[in-house]
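Protocol step 4 of 5: obtain the predicted structure for the target chain.
Materials: sequence only (see below). No template structures provided, no constraints applied. The aim of this step is simply to have a reference model before the mutagenesis design in step 5. Sequence pasted as it appears in the construct record:
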Amino acid sequence: MSASAVARPDIAPVRNGKSVLILGAGISGLAAAYELSRKGYAVKVIEASHRPGGRNLTLRGGDLVDEVEYPQRCEFDRHADLYFNAGPARIPGHHAALLNYCKELGVALAPFINENRNAWVQDDAMFGGRPVRNREYIADSRGFLAELVAKSIRPETFGATFTQRDYRQLLEYVRQFGELDERFKYAGSTRAGYAIHDYTKPPAYKQPLDAHELLRSGFIYLMSFSELDDQSAMMMEPVGGMDRIVTAFMARIGALVELNSPVQSIRIGDSGVAVRYRKGGSTVNAHADFCLTCIPMHLLARIEHNFPKRYSDALSAVPHGKLFKIGLQMKQRFWENEGIYGGISWTMQDIQQIWYPTHDIHRDKGVVLGAYTFSDEVAEKFARLPPAARTKLAIEQGERIHPGYGRHVESSISIAWHRMNHMFGCPVRWSEPLQAQCFRTLQAPVGGHYLIGDQMSYHPGWQEGALHSAFHAIADIDQRVRASASLG
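Step 4 output (structure tokens):
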């Protein structure tokens, strides 16, 4: 583990029957149950949904999408390779807590191709909507920028300490950055690619894209996307789908999990936490010394409770995002004929992204992510449509990138996370003012009750954030139990 990674807490074993209720079987809840149960805590996990995992959801043929108004059954072929990660789909290499669990629980991993320079960039504002290769867009944009910088900088603008040698080194850096020629002019580059790959002939660069057209594009952020902390190589994915992590946890602690059990009431008292939940047609009362809750905070606020007002108000103060995804089973892996193996094509249309599966190259079929929206407005636009209309729109926009796209689609499945039962939202959207106002309040325990999940991290939307929140809570429980034992 790297020095900067957050370590799993070293929990002391207990022999005095300390009990813990965990509300929600998301990744944080499952990890907390795993850690606490193996140290002797009496643990019960109560989950409202028909399945564990929270937003860790992989869809295969026959699976249910429990969306309000538009419930769906996935109609993919029943084949192990044809699946769709409707929630998290990639693991950065520095997410040590999640990767360590994968190793410990035997979850096989494979490389995930996040950026592919052979994939497409499409924006109606440039080149008449014609897609261009990612590599050309990035290389030519950087080339033109570097040429402009090389023509503009003067040594006298940097002050007396900036020497002629420094100036020459800076020019060389700029030249390398943009792959400029000896005259500091951009005339195409190996990064943008060759006009033809015929290795029996001398190489010829592609003609650079028109700089005026590139400047019309809204994709400036693409030039640094793959350098972001959570988007850079090496990234990974579980072999067979992200929910292999959920399955691995359930193999260890599944007997502790009660599904289809929505919580109705949480009451904090001097002797612990009392929880009332519905199971089948019956009401069940449970009590424990401690309670960990990964129920989305905006839903937790609506459950009957006796939380302090400041805490209750904070639960309702933090907004949740709206994300939409659609998976398309393709009867032919046509993108591989275009030289695309994994990675993402980008568009300024509503679908925003198309992802190509990294696994099972050269098989007959594959599942493509046909839309991944980050804008609340766009996600709501898709969510209002019936599933067939969502697919139609995604195909229409995909055609702008891949002509003939629609003829390859065999079936589809879509998910609007803000309309999913027991979720009704995606990651929380912490602003700095809200963090200053609410985060510490919600992170601190109320009696024996703790709020966990990626919502209680500075890394919402990632499983690593969820795990760190669980570590924080169980470390505090461990400290309290140790202190109690020393007093006793």
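Step 4 remarks: The domain at 132-217 is CATH 1.20.1440.240 (de novo design (two linked rop proteins)). The chain is about 30% helix and 20% strand.
Proceed to step 5.
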